[in-house]
Amino acid sequence: MKIATWNVNSLNVRLEQVIEWLNKHQPDVLALQELKQEQNKFPINEFTKINYNAAWLGQKTYNGVALICKDEISDIVYGMTNFTDEQSRVISATYRNIRFICVYCVNGESIDSEKFIYKQQWFDALNQHIIHEKNRYDNCVVLGDFNIAPADIDVYDPQKWQGKILCSDIERECFCRMLALGFSDSIRELSKEKQLFTWWDYRMNSFRRNLGMRIDHILLTPQLMQCANDFGVDTEQRAQERPSDHAPVWIECNW
DNA sequence: ATGGCTTCATAGTGAAGA
After folding, report:
1. Which bases of chain B are contacted by protein, using any atom under 7 A from a CB?
2. What is the rounded average pLDDT of the residues A88-100?
3. pTM of model > 0.85
4. Whose C1' is closest to the CA of A109: which nucleotide?
5. Å from the A204 CA to the B5 C1'
6. Residues of A with catalytic annotation?
7. How far is the CA of A1 from the C1' of B6 (A)?
8. b vs e for A203-239, b when ≥16 Cβ sit within 10 Å of the residue's Cβ?
9. In chain A, what are the domain boundaries?
10. Can you tell me the mean pLDDT for A14-30?
């Protein structure tokens, strides 16, 4: 089974690239973030045309998440349990008896911002949601744009970013607490201690200079982690014309 | 130099992303 996640930074702009990517890579599941598209504008026909199903949660202008799957999707939950959020950031669904939780986590702007308070509250709610889902399903995947670089190795210039948004101790503790619920950071484990990035700022020629961060993650429960055998970050996609600032990230497991 | 670019929005002295 091939499982992928990609923050597409507007599905309106990137639809053609997403369809091409699905055709080329044929993942079983692709989690998308930042659709930036109203619920009723989601181009479901473009996905069914190439034999994919989808569950999505959109809104105007910002956020928006989707799960694109090769086969039947069931038990779709929109948003988080016990947390009312006007922002469309979470969708959960079952595919081949595995629970997939697609997340577009709060950015937070800066650690002295109001949005950073929201980020912390939001992650508390996400943990509760994950606990709830994990009680219902043995095998879970939490994947998406976490907006957290878990360690210094995940940052191109840790000195410059020390204590800053995406890299603060508070955020890294949030990430650790999530793993402590019973998940592995699959890309980190499969790549060992190798540095790799999933996002590069549009500015400063960041991609060409490889000034990036690893903020998109695929978290796996133990049985799934045990059968994970390959992974990749599709930097070719980030190198294309008019790319998203995030690259697709994928893992393969014998499931 | 706390900028640089991209998207969505509106016509802002923009807002937000990461």
Report:
1. 3-9, 16-18
2. 98
3. yes
4. B18
5. 8
6. 104, 145
7. 33
8. eeebbeeebbbbbbbbbbbeebbeebeebbbbbebbe
9. 2-253
10. 98
